[in-house]
Amino acid sequence: MTKASTHPPLPLGEAGRRPAGPRTGEGWRPNEPAPVQVQRLSGIVLEAADLAATRAFYEPIFTHHSGTWEQSANRLLFSTPTESVEFVRHARPRTYQGGGYHQAYRVPAAKLKQLAQSYASAGSALEWWREDHPDERVPSPYLEDPSGNRVQLVASDQNGRLIDHVAVEVYEFDYCEYLWVTTLGGNVQYYHGWRREDQIEAKQWASGDDPCAPWTRKDNPSYRDFLIVDPVTGEERPARFAGEVGAERPSGPPKVPRPNGQVFYTYGDSRLALISATRVWQEQPEEIVKSTPRLVFDVAQDADAVAEALAPTPIPWEREGNTIYVRDADGNFAELRSPSPSGRGQG
Amino acid sequence: MAEIESIAHSGIEGPDSRSLETFYEQIFGATRVETVSGSYEGNRGGNPHPCGVIGDYLYVMFPDRSDTALPPEDQLRGGIDRDVRHAFMVTRDRFPEFVERLQREEVPFEGPVTHPEKGPLGQSVYFKDTGGNFFEVCWRRDEDVEYAPVPVSQG
């Protein structure tokens, strides 16, 4: 049986404050404007093997939003006046199946259960999980599209936005935050895993009484969890000495629940989550800067100004017209769309 | 002969280890080493305990799982009753600047306390981090004394 967490929502912290870049030694510079003025996370570009099947999957979700579909041989695009979700055809799509990567779309609250159930009835695997962000503590439905992209449905009657949030995985938060926070100005809205409460709460998951999403927890014993106690001296010893001292040998690896680190950032009214990587993902070659899957951000500056802001940073980027493509330190991609056409150049 | 060379690092706990990390950066000008430890990475994700450096002092931060009660809110000075106080030194010239920083960042503190004229310390301020750990920042009256460097291995 699943149930909502009884853990009270934690206060949002540090909004409006940005940590310094990685290893700069310059300390905090609170409230200093970011060099790139991101307005919002406005789109996603994903990979899909079968565009027709993809459209059939997403139509019941996107139908609740005013938008149009465009389809060509290698591209499928759903766009509203302010957002877009694009699928690029790939024979073997990169979808990071089984990890914490996911895209959350808003659907009317009254239709959520029925919609989710319709996918289950059609044979889709349906899971009801909760996450740790204060807005996501009640279980919501998760599906996989035909290519393996993980989709979360979020009940919302604020149907102005299609994309509720997007989550990607990272290994090195500090280096990645140099892009997402220091350069693009994301505000840390909430984080999970660094608090005492988070550690205690993770134990609920081990007892099977917490329907939290799999990427939010980990079974992660440290070396001390494998020690045995000498029955005579009370001394802790490595398990290999169990026979020698007459202690009972552990029957298997202990289950030590811990929270997995997650940080949530806002860009205007949109949200991005960085999840501590749940496994080792093969990165694309480091010289690749424009690729998929990627996030799309609207920026306030023209592309010349964005290029000028990125030039002194170590962030790899390249430009096509008024769009600039960037990549974080762990191989996640994004494009920065400027509002007005400007000259061409290359970073 | 002493075989221990120096303090290598400290482990510091608090209810929110990320909050500790930002406090040390904001107040002490600490340099971040990492927010998530890859060193103790398990098979799923790095451990969310940060690490930082203040000068040459390395520290790691953990969420306190012992449910230890925090010191009373109005207690700003520790290191007296079996609790620990870390003390850092600044130059006499920079001491007022540090006090101003505490005021600007609205960190409650006790002091500056002026120490006896014949002692090694000039003045100190006492305060807590966001996890209730006690700190002192002081300047020393003997800060201009030059000591001959002694290689530790020959000491």
Number of DSSP helical runs of chain A = 6
- Report the sheet-strand fraction of chain A: 25-35%
- Element-by-element helix/strand order of chain A: EHEEEEHEEEEHEHEEEHEEEEHEEE
- Low-confidence blocks of residues of chain B: none
**H/E element order of chain B:** EHEEEEHEEE
The main pleated sheet of chain A reads as: 8 strands, mixed
Calculate the mean pLDDT score of chain A and round it: 86
Largest sheet of chain B: 4 strands, mixed
Q: What is the global morphology of chain B?
A: globular
What is the structural class of chain B? alpha/beta
Q: What are the low-pLDDT stretches of chain A, counting only 5+ consecutive residues below 50? A: 1-30, 342-347
Strand order of the largest sheet of chain A: 2-3-4-1-17-20-19-18
Helix content of chain B: 10-25%
Summarize the structure.
By secondary structure, chain A is α+β, with helices and mostly antiparallel strands.
